[in-house]
Design goal:
Low-confidence stretches of chain A: none
Number of strands of chain A: 30
Distance between the termini of chain A: 23 Å
CATH class of the largest domain in chain A: Alpha Beta
Strand content of chain A: 25-35%
Number of domains of chain A: 3
EC number (chains A, B): 6.1.1.15
InterPro entries (chains A, B): aa-tRNA-synt_IIb, aa-tRNA-synth_II, aa-tRNA-synth_II/BPL/LPL, Anticodon-bd, Anticodon-bd_dom_sf, Pro-tRNA-ligase_IIa, Pro-tRNA-synth_IIa_bac-type, Pro-tRNA-Synthase_IIa_type1
Protein name (chains A, B): Proline--tRNA ligase
Largest interface: A-B, 50 and 50 residues
Shape of chain A: globular
Helix content of chain A: 25-40%
CATH topology of the largest domain in chain A: BirA Bifunctional Protein, domain 2
Organism (chains A, B): Pseudoalteromonas amylolytica
Pfam families (chains A, B): HGTP_anticodon (PF03129), tRNA-synt_2b (PF00587), tRNA_edit (PF04073)
Oligomer: homodimer
CATH superfamily of the largest domain in chain A: Bira Bifunctional Protein, Domain 2
Radius of gyration of chain A: 30 Å
Structural class of chain A: alpha+beta
Chain lengths: 574, 574
């Protein structure tokens, strides 16, 4: 491809509305443009990268025995009503009406459609297991689309679905897909981790996310220092401390805290170290004798953070978790948030495992402007339940039993689930089993954020000059930059000759034939992240040489013109 | 691929709701399934064919210098408002609101989005010409989706757009795209024709459609018997008859026609041959002195059909054309449709060229239940305008000047337009010209109905047993059918060996390893239209032979096992 016949669309300035580096670089390198909030046009060089991701994903899916098909973006509402998700899904599910006023949704995922398809097409256990996938445009009407294609409203996803007679069979396919996902990210040249994950709104029991590690990642991942244990922080268990709770050594006392509403205030104004106090969070749950929605107190050590997903798993806590309104708290307790605590509290109390081993600690006195010191469990608070409520923190013991936890940031680019029978049961998707009886199928589902991978790869591979593509993802394999083409015949002649020789050798070359200053051309090629740039200049030609620049390593190499094509082709293909 | 691990999904019965053969065969061969009206899931074998079409289209677009990109399906309303099409487009434009109640449309076409993109990215004439394309999911909310993927609501299209400084440059690119389209349909092995077409709601001046010829086609195409002239019947000019109009030989007389409301009635009840009478159609147009919407009469020979697009081109006729309501006709004329005619009619009269050379003809007397005979132009009707108003019919002289016209049916699978400045002007898309002044760009647009091609190819290539794919489109290149696999070790051993040898040779094989009767397997392979089937049976193995069946020709060939892979690979690749 010649730049003169291409649409390079590079930008010198960083667009002001792009917060993260991948979004900035995708705009600057001319890979994407915003059409509207969360809607992006893929320019030619961006699309080439997207297609490379798609192709690797496809190859690994086929290798894993999955079969490609293609379902519509527009899905009839009745299937979503059947699964129950028409009600459960929030406004991210973009609902539309057709010209006859019939309700449809633009698919963010296809569990309903595929389950409907399989229940109609597959009738016997002999046709199982079956894994189907598609690479397709998905729609999710995000409340706040951001970070470019990282969290867009229209995006490309690979979604696969597997169908089985037994849990064991599902577990086998799940393992094969897990391996296929590792292969995909390996081949793409990304630093990634599979991590234990929550199943969230998709449902099911076992689940792993695949994260590309990057500081800008929205997710925190906990790793063991001594094993390959890794989990989304949402899901990583905070083990109960092994040390016993100290015996009480202080009396229960109140002290006035008129200005202290937070753990930070307590520290600043009263010298209470955060890990010596607890925070008390009031949420809805635990219906009272009249089946009225009641309140529940969650107690955490002052320096720990609530993990909502963990709290939701407690039978007394409503799911989704909802913080109690201040008026409801005041009506029940007679005090406001900032002065709450477990002593004398007339509602179920759930105490985090780490808070449960504290002694002589500080908490609100359930009276505005007053706190207790010297609180001790059992002595001062008779009834409470101990539960894992908090996010793990760096240094916590690893739940796998080996080493301690480290926390890193990651970008979720894949997610696989052992769904079980959530959808097949709701939609009555069964087959004739070996015993001749109808048997509900067991399902798995497996997603890759194809367009998001492009952004995640850039988050992990960039420098001050632009993108540093892993070879498998680069939009072009080689750039040819002739310097001052118009000043001699020799340079354009050799550039043209090399361009056609590389093209004949099957190398995907971007030939910068613009009448631009060399600096402009180099900057564009670096910004776009082409892995190798072949520079053709007068001085080197005097020695019958050309220069090869390696974008990732920065290395420069002089090559004899006659050996350039063979040597560079070998380097690129090797 | 092994059928045991595939989802073949063939059907024995023809689904009752499928009217045309391609729809029936796509369902029966397990290529598609209906999700909802006009929404289809592509099964694995269907998707493979779709992808083959996509790939050929892509290769020819790239060869023609077009550059691939990808725009969103969801488009903001404001761009459509800018072009004026938000108002012009009917309910086929599926309009939606996002969660913030902002209006969007699901794109049936992307003129607005691409024009907006180019006006922002391209600033100088030096960057022109530029041709961009995408292969993408499109949405058109058809009032009556039918014929499966032939007229679906969600479908795959290739749409390309070119941008130019001058009409001449546009004409050159248009010619190159015309050639690329010919290459595409040639490579796909289809019997097709490029035909002169109307520009319709897309706009512009010059336009060609590409039709796959098939009796089930919704369009009629007129061909010259002596040249390569071909036009959509909508667009084919009906030349003025060369013979002079005979002199009047009869008196004007009325006769009672109480029961005759149509040309057919006149023939049956009064012996008036259709070509000796005229029909008078009253439409809206021609405002009167008070700028009120008036009426206009269109006069055609009794055996000819009105061409609405031609009538709309007359300055006195409203566009879109609308037939006058009976009450408006009665108020103006004092008679009802069925008894109308040109004599004494007080409104503009437009006469089709063929009707204008009639003499002594019959028409309504503008009095219910009465007709005139012996009508003659000029003598009996003083003022009238002669215009091309009718569809051509077989035997008409070709507008190219050579031969006469034949009419065939076609399926429109491509449409190219010289748009001119319709969108660029409305959206102010200009570049700096050589003279340093802003200049509005000139545009072309070029569409291929990718998913429709799959159906059109089947309409043209089928028999009683199923689909007969042209080689370029077949979902598999070869089927291996071992007969009675379970009865001996020899058959599965050889089948497995050949399957891996063909696969190693790069042939896309469907290996039917099901425990089915041979007849079931043959029927499925024929239905699916695999071009070659290799049959492995006991008797032939005794002679160390296998049998190759050619789906298109029906030929059978015996091959020595050891030579089978080389011979068949050569035949498929040749």
């Amino acid at each position: 491809m010649r730049t003169s016949q291409y649409i390079l669309a590079t930008l010198k300035e960083t667009p002001s509305d792009a917060e993260i580096i991948s979004h900035q670089l995708m705009l600057r390198a001319g890979m994407i443009r915003k059409l509207a909030s969360g809607l992006y046009t893929w320019l030619p060089s961006g699309l080439k990268v997207l297609r490379k991701v798609e192709q690797v994903v496809r190859e690994e899916m086929n290798k894993a025995g999955a079969i490609e098909m293609l379902m519509p973006v527009i899905q009839p509402a009745d299937l979503w009503q059947e699964s129950g998700r028409w009600e459960q899904f929030g406004p991210e599910l973009l609902r539309i009406n057709d010209r006859h006023n019939r309700p449809f949704a633009l698919g963010p995922t296809h569990e309903e459609v595929i389950t409907d398809f399989v229940r109609k097409e597959i009738s016997s256990y002999k046709q199982l297991p079956l894994t189907l996938y598609q690479v397709q445009t998905k729609v999710r009407d995000e409340v706040r689309p951001r970070f470019g294609v990282m969290r867009a409203r229209e995006f490309t996803m690979k979604d696969a679905y597997s169908f089985h007679l037994t849990e064991e069979c599902l577990a086998q396919t799940y393992q094969r897909m897990h391996q296929a996902y590792c292969n995909i990210f390996e081949r793409l040249g990304l630093d990634y981790r599979p991590v234990i994950a929550d199943t969230g709104s998709i449902g099911g029991s076992v689940s792993h996310e695949f994260h590309v590690l990057a500081e800008s990642g929205e997710d925190a991942i906990a790793f063991s220092t001594e094993s390959d244990y890794a989990a989304n922080i949402e899901k990583a268990e905070a083990l109960a401390p092994t040390e016993a709770r100290p015996e009480p050594s202080k009396e229960l006392n109140t002290f006035a805290t008129p200005e202290a509403k937070t753990i930070a205030d307590l520290k600043a104004q009263h010298g209470v170290k955060p890990h010596r106090g607890v925070k008390t969070l009031i949420v809805y749950g635990a219906p009272d004798e009249n089946e009225q929605r009641g309140l529940v107190a969650l107690i955490l050590r002052g320096d720990h953070e609530l993990n909502e997903l963990k709290a939701e798993k407690h039978p007394l806590v409503d799911s989704p978790l909802e913080m109690a309104k201040e008026e409801d708290i005041f009506a029940a307790i007679g005090a406001r948030p900032g002065s709450l605590g477990p002593v004398g509290l007339k509602m179920p109390i759930i105490v985090d495992r780490s808070a449960a081993v504290m002694a002589d600690f500080v908490a609100g006195a359930n009276k505005d402007g007053e706190h207790y010191s010297g609180i001790n469990w059992d002595r001062d608070v008779a009834e409470y339940d101990v539960f894992d409520l908090r996010n793990v923190v760096e240094g916590d013991p690893s739940p796998c039993g080996k080493g301690t936890l480290q926390i890193k940031r990651g970008i979720e680019v894949g997610h696989i689930f052992q769904l079980g029978t959530k959808y097949s049961e709701a939609m009555n998707a069964g087959v004739l089993g070996e015993n001749g009886k109808n048997q509900i199928m067991t399902m798995g589902c497996y997603g890759v954020g194809v367009s998001r991978i492009v952004a995640a790869a850039i988050e992990q591979n960039n420098d001050d000059y632009g993108i540093k593509w892993p070879t498998a993802l680069a939009p072009f394999e080689l750039a040819i930059v002739p310097m001052n083409m118009h000043k001699s015949h020799r340079i354009p002649d050799i550039a043209e000759r090399l361009y056609s020789e590389f093209t004949a050798a099957g190398i995907d070359v971007l030939f910068d034939d613009r009448k631009e200053r060399p600096g402009v051309m180099f900057n564009d090629m670096e910004l776009l992240g082409v892995p190798f740039t072949l520079v053709i200049g007068e001085r080197n030609l005097d020695n019958n040489q050309v220069e090869l620049k390696n974008r990732r390593t920065g290395e420069k190499l002089m090559l004899d013109i006659d050996q350039a094509v063979a040597a560079i082709t070998a380097q690129i293909r090797g």
